[in-house]
Amino acid sequence: MNLLETLQQFPAFANVPDEQLQWVIDRADEESYPEETVLYKPNEPINHLILLLEGRVRIDGGVNGAADEILTYEPHSLLGLLPFSRMKSIPNRLISVTPIKVLKLHRDKLPELIHACYELTESMVHQMTTRVRDYTKLTQQNEKMASLGRLSAGLAHELNNPVAAVVRSADTLKVHMRATPEAFKAIMHLNLTDEQVDSVNTVFFKKVDQQRAVDARPLTLLERTSLEDEVTDWLDDNGVDDSMDLASPLVDYGFTVDDLDWILEKIGDENLVGVINWLVNNLVTEKLVSDISEASKRISTLTGSIKNYTHMDRGTGKQQIPLAEGLRSTLILLDHKVKSKHIQLNLTIADDLPPVCGWPGELNQVWTNLIDNAIDALPDGGKLDIVSQPDRRPDGSEFVVTKVIDNGSGIPEDIKDKIFEPFFTTKEIGKGTGLGLDIVQGIIKHHNGSIKLQSEPGHTEFSVCLPTE
């Protein structure tokens, strides 16, 4: 089969006259390459229209080879530069999967092709728009999956601690409850009046309630050590065995020597050992149950954040959105990254912040990308401020302005105008696709909003303005 017959097999050239195909053949170079030949490296200039005559070609990330595959081209495909395309390079690698044969037309010939071959140009422009649409959709999907992967990893990390705490406390509680029968025997041998029992119950529940209080101040290490020594000495002086083991739970709930003196006065020496052991037994049970409760609440908070973040229990239409909810949910899911870099995080949300009208799932992508990028840009111990406040314009229209501010090294002046371009990234290969800010800008435009950037060393600020109507 000659070259003309081969080009006639291209689906894109179904309506192209033979003389126009021959025009390309006369001006193009036929070349062959063995398998696994790198035709273009990432960001290498592309100067040819490539017609794939035989074999298969793939586009990959250039890091893990076939594992990074983005697209595969079969025989009779158009690659590289196309008429009217502004392409100068691609951020990925173009490599032959099998031995290939191609026809290459240099970019210098494209202006002449546009004037001489109308049908051919039309078919190639159609291919260009299809290629851009398919490639952008695929890469955006990969970016969304990568974001989902990062959030899933963070969620698993955050869930691991409370889940481990529940398991650990439940196992300890099971062991602890086996000692209850012995404690019950000791209690049954005590000779206590109803008034004495009530006094012990009173001090027990008073200490438990104080520990549960929101404003309860935790003891410093020095204060705790000093109080444990005092309680241990008191127990020893009053003939209570295992004083060191008993002192710690008592101190956990704020028992002091004065409290123990009060109990002793109420119950008498003969009942002291049994009552102290009963108190400690119940305090340990209370502590384990409290730990399980706190860990369970943390799990509930995390799952609630995922529910709020994805809005999986709501419709997909446009609705009134409380931005504070989305910001907090996003921060909970990214909390592991904040902690891992010891970042000082400040979230300031105005009390009178009005809701905005939009698609909650899309706006959460905005906060995820902006906050995740800010965290990546910060050094260990950096500072991240997130501020959301209402803004009323002179014409009476209302907006909500949300700012994501970091004190990192800033964005260089020469790339500020490029950061919202598709596929532009400052991250190393394999760490970013360059679609984050492009997606952000597209979503904000979809909401009739705007995004602005101010950056200098020590202060980078992304300001998102969204209408309330």
TrEMBL record:
According to the entry, every stretch annotated as the Cyclic nucleotide-binding domain falls at 12-131
Q: Which GO terms describe its molecular function?
A: phosphorelay sensor kinase activity
Q: Which domain of life is it from?
A: Bacteria
Task: Write out the entry's keywords from A to Z.
Answer: Kinase, Phosphoprotein, Transferase
- Carries keyword Phosphoprotein? yes
Stated EC number for the protein is: 2.7.13.3
Recorded catalytic reaction(s): these are: ATP + protein L-histidine = ADP + protein N-phospho-L-histidine
Q: Which PROSITE patterns match?
A: CNMP_BINDING_3 (PS50042), HIS_KIN (PS50109)
A Pfam family that this protein carries is HATPase_c
Name the top EC class.
transferase
Q: Give every Histidine kinase domain span.
A: 241-469
The record's listing under PANTHER family reads: HISTIDINE KINASE, SENSOR HISTIDINE KINASE
Quote the protein name from its UniProt record. histidine kinase
According to its UniProt entry, this protein's organism is Spirosoma linguale (strain ATCC 33905 / DSM 74 / LMG 10896 / Claus 1)
Q: What is the lineage of its organism?
A: Bacteria, Pseudomonadati, Bacteroidota, Cytophagia, Cytophagales
